From TrEMBL:
Residues 457-474 have a biased composition (Low complexity). The lineage of its organism: Eukaryota, Metazoa, Ecdysozoa, Nematoda, Chromadorea. Residues 226-398 form the PCI domain. One of its GO terms (cellular component) is proteasome complex. InterPro entries: 26S_Proteasome/COP9_Components (IPR050871), PCI_dom (IPR000717), Rpn6_N (IPR040773), WH_DNA-bd_sf (IPR036390). This is (pine wood nematode) hypothetical protein. It comes from the Eukaryota. Belongs to the proteasome subunit S9 family. Keywords: Proteasome. Residues 1-23, 435-474 are annotated as: Disordered. Residues 444-456 have a biased composition (Basic residues).
Length: 474
């Protein structure tokens, strides 16, 4: 047995080729421990690279097998080997192994303990950047397992620290996670503020497609939750899907497609879901979550409440365990009840409330209240007779074209009167100017005549003066 271990260890100590990748992945954690017990020099790049690849291969295999406990043991057993690596390489290796553990859906507490232990080790080794990135992953883990208060408190502390050292990459990631935790805690205003902070930080740096996808997705979620602006939310979800597809992030791409379908349902356009899900890019993401949204869309299109409730019961994990879908469930249910009531009363002019309640499967009192609200909102036209327990359905009155035409004529006449008034005002101004000019002309003539007389008298006086001053001769 020891000979087999040594032979397999020697395989891991050689540079990995395409044929040796499977042998690296087949090593156990115990065999890796024995491999790490063999001392190597830090400047032996071949041996260091071989062991690094062996650790990553085994970690990826354990992550695929969802073996969280063994993955934790693997991370702990690599500590002696990390001393040989440089700080940058060691930090990258630890972060990668922690990311492998976070992908696993099970064993939440083991993952939390593992992250905390790695954070403590980074503190002991005085590796500040590694500690901060691990704490950022811990914030994300808290959000994933539903510990939103812990996520928010850790995010606040970490954001203050990251702003001092101006580490924008990790800062954006933590700010997005802070916004997620606040949204789940129901504090939409602070969630929006955190998202604005993330966008402000992102504007000053290059954003990789994965982070941009998370930013767009959170923007769409908040637009849908706070403003109920599903049209804008859909555009954000579409951008998130494009970036996730570019980053080849299947989880994020599936989530973006799911919320795109939700937006179309909330916009009362369930027929568009098939077009979204059968697109060239969307086919590879199809799974149980998207199938659940397709069933909800079918129920909305057919306007059958039982089908809608059955879809939520069948796909309970995919729908009710999703915080975003769950937050819109009551709105979806009320909208679905309205659609079914409209479908039931459409063929009748008079129908009993008891008959409608039996058909839809709801108490008569609730049906009566809902119909009254629909009448007030003018969803349909009719009259509710509570004394006889019936509802009279009237035809839609349609648009009153006569009133519209009368209003249009009034507007045209008003414009005509205004134009006539302006023309009259201009004519009055012209008349006053003409009159003023006519008055000024005789005055000017008199002035000119008076001026000529003055000149004549002055010239005559000058002539008489000259004759009188001349000496007389006899």
């Amino acid at each position: 047995m020891s000979g087999q271990v040594m032979s397999r260890s020697s395989q891991a100590a050689t540079p990995p080729t395409q044929n040796s990748q499977t042998s690296l992945a087949n090593l156990t954690v115990e065999e890796l421990k024995k491999l790490f017990s063999i001392p190597i020099k830090a400047n032996d790049e071949v041996q260091v690279k071989a062991r690094e690849d062996a650790v990553l291969a085994v970690g990826k295999k354990l992550s695929g097998e969802k073996n969280t406990e063994e993955l934790k043991n693997l991370i702990l057993s690599t500590r002696p080997f990390l001393a040989v690596l440089g700080k940058a390489k060691a930090g990258k290796l630890v972060r990668t192994l922690v990311d492998y553990s976070l992908v696993i859906d099970e064993d939440a507490q083991i993952k939390v303990d593992l992250c905390k232990e790695c954070v403590e080790w980074a503190k002991e080794q005085k590796r500040v950047y590694l500690r901060q990135t691990l704490e950022a992953r811990l914030v994300r883990l808290y959000n994933d397992i539903g510990r939103y208060t812990d996520a928010n408190s850790l995010a606040l502390t970490l954001i203050k620290e990251l702003k001092k050292i101006d580490d924008k990459d990790v800062l954006v990631e933590v700010q997005i996670e802070e916004s997620k935790s606040l949204f789940c805690l129901g504090n939409l205003s602070r969630a929006k503020s955190a998202l604005v902070g993330a966008k402000t930080t992102a504007n000053a740096m290059y954003m990789n497609p994965k982070t941009q996808s998370e930013l767009d997705l959170q923007s769409g979620i908040l637009h849908a939750a706070e403003d109920h602006d599903f049209k804008t939310a859909f555009s954000y979800f579409y951008e998130a899907f494009e970036n996730a597809d570019q980053a080849e992030d299947k989880v994020m791409g599936t989530k973006a497609l799911k919320y795109m379908c939700l937006s179309k349902i909330m916009l009362n356009e369930p027929e568009a879901i098939d077009k979204i899900l059968t697109g060239k890019q969307a086919i590879k993401y199809f799974g149980s979550e998207l199938e659940a949204m397709r069933e909800v869309g079918k129920a909305f299109y057919s306007r059958v409440l039982k089908t809608f409730l059955a879809a939520f019961e069948t796909y309970k994990k995919e729908l009710m365990e999703d915080r975003v879908v769950k937050s819109h469930f009551s709105t979806l249910s009320e909208s679905m009840i309205e659609r079914e009531l409209c479908r039931l009363i459409e063929p009748y002019k008079v129908v009993e409330l008891k008959f409608i309640a039996d058909k839809i499967g709801l108490p008569q009192v609730r049906v009566e209240k809902k119909l009254a609200l629909m009448l007030l909102d003018k969803v349909f036209y009719g009259c509710l007779d509570q004394s006889y327990g019936v509802i009279y359905v009237h035809e839609h009155p349609g648009k009153e074209e006569g009133y519209k035409n009368a209003v249009d004529i009034i507007h045209v006449l008003s414009d005509t009167v205004n134009a006539t008034y302006l023309m009259a005002h201009k004519l009055r101004l012209m008349e006053t100017r003409v009159k003023a000019s006519d008055v000024e002309k005789p005055v000017e003539k008199k002035r000119k005549k008076a001026g000529k007389k003055v000149k004549r008298t002055s010239s005559a006086s000058s002539q008489t003066g000259s004759t009188s001053s001349a000496p007389r001769t006899e």
